[in-house]
Amino acid sequence: MAIEVTDATFLDVVLKSEKPVLVDFWAAWCGPCRMLAPTVEELSADFEGKAVVVKVDVDANQEFAAKYGVRNIPTILIFKGGEVVDKQVGVAPKATYTEKLEALV
To answer: Rounded CA gap, 104 and 35, in Å?
Structure first.
C-alpha cells in the first residue's frame, strides 16, 4: 500500500530513501487523481522491496508541492538519491510508470 507522506515526513521518507521513490501528488477533489489511485496502489505492490511508493495530499501538504513546481495534479515525481529523475503530469497507463521505475531498480 502506498505510504501517506506529509511535509513533516517527506525528507525522511522520500529524500533520504536508499531506493527509488515514486511520489503521487494528489487531492481528494481531483477526478483524475482518483482514476490514478488504483494504479498507484498496484505499483506499490509490484515494486514492494524494490522501490517506495508514496502519496502527498497537496491540499494538506503544500511545501514540497511548491518546492518541486507541482502546478497540476495528478503529478508523479520519481526520486533517486534525493533528486527528481523523472516526472509525469496527468494520468498515464500503468506501463509508463512501470518502465520509469524498472529503469531505476
So the answer is: 25
Angle between helices 31-46 and 94-102 (to 10 degrees): 40
Q: Which of 30, 37, 85, 92 is catalytic?
A: 30
> Global pTM?
0.96
Supply the pLDDT for residue 97. 97
Beta bridge partners of 84: 79
Catalytic residue among 2, 13, 21, 33: 33
57 a catalytic residue: no
Nearest one of 9, 82, 1 to 40, comparing CA atoms: 1
What is d(CA 34, CA 13) in angstroms, rounded to the nearest whole number?
A: 23
- Strands 75-80 vs 21-26: parallel, antiparallel or unpaired: antiparallel
Going by pLDDT thresholds of 50, 70 and 90, the confidence category of residue 1 is: confident
Q: What pLDDT is recorded for position 94?
A: 97
How many residues does this entry show for the chain? 105
